[in-house]
Amino acid sequence: MACAICKDSFTVGAVVNQLPCFSPLPPFCISPWLNTRNTCPLCRYEMPTDDKDYEARKRNEGNEYDTLLIHQHDVNDDSSLDATYDGVMDEPSQLHHGREQREVLNADSVG
Predict the structure, then answer these.
(1) Cβ–Cβ under 8 Å, residues 40 and 31
(2) DSSP states of 36-100 as a string?
(3) pLDDT tens for each residue of 50-63
(4) Could you give the CA distance from residue 104 to residue 17 in angstroms, rounded to a whole number?
(5) Could you tell me how far CA 36 lies from the centroid of its own chain?
(6) By CB neighbour count within 10 A (0-12 exposed, 13-18 middle, 19+ buried), where does 2 fall?
(7) What is the pLDDT of residue 63?
(8) Nearest alpha carbon to residue 45 among 23, 62, 13
(9) pLDDT band at 41; cut points 50, 70, 90
(10) CA gap 78, 55 in Å, rounded
(11) Which of 16, 19, 38, 54 could form an SS bridge with 24, CB 3.0 to 4.6 Å?
């Protein structure tokens, strides 16, 4: 496995930071990256910021994508409609927003 920022390969036993999106990156690469950006260099996952106004706008913009599914069970049955929520949440999912340090293991020694 290689670092998405510097392209160096991880060595067995190297310490890496694991982002909330589970991407592993070396601390000497990810710290400067996150000082100027709030996205993962691998998957572009957007990290939360300390800008409360931006986070509120981002949350509100996300609400416009929530959908309500309408199911018509029986046309002959009073044309009653049953509205059900499709499972999209109003609030952002409860992800662990911190970074965790992990040790790179040899794939042969796992499991």
Answers:
(1) no
(2) H--B-TTT-PBPP-S-HHHHHHHHHHHHTT--EEEEE--TTSTT-EEEEE-S--SSPP----S-E
(3) 889 988 888 887 65
(4) 10
(5) 19
(6) exposed
(7) 56
(8) 23
(9) very high
(10) 44
(11) 16
| Angle at 68 (CA atoms; ends 65, 70), nearest 5 degrees | 145
Domain that holds residue 104: 15-52+96-109
Query: Which two three-digit tokens encode residue 18?
Result: 């694991």
Q: Let me know if residue 80 belongs to a domain.
A: no
- The tokens describing 108, both together, are 């042969």
67: pLDDT strictly greater than 60: no
User: Can you give the pTM of this predicted structure?
Assistant: 0.49
Domain tally for the chain?
A: 1
Residues paired with residue 2 on neighbouring β-strands, in sequence order? 9
Note whether residue 60 is domain-resident. no
Residue 29 has pLDDT above 50, yes or no: yes
64: its two tokens: 């416009």
Provide the CATH number for the domain around residue 24.
3.30.40.10
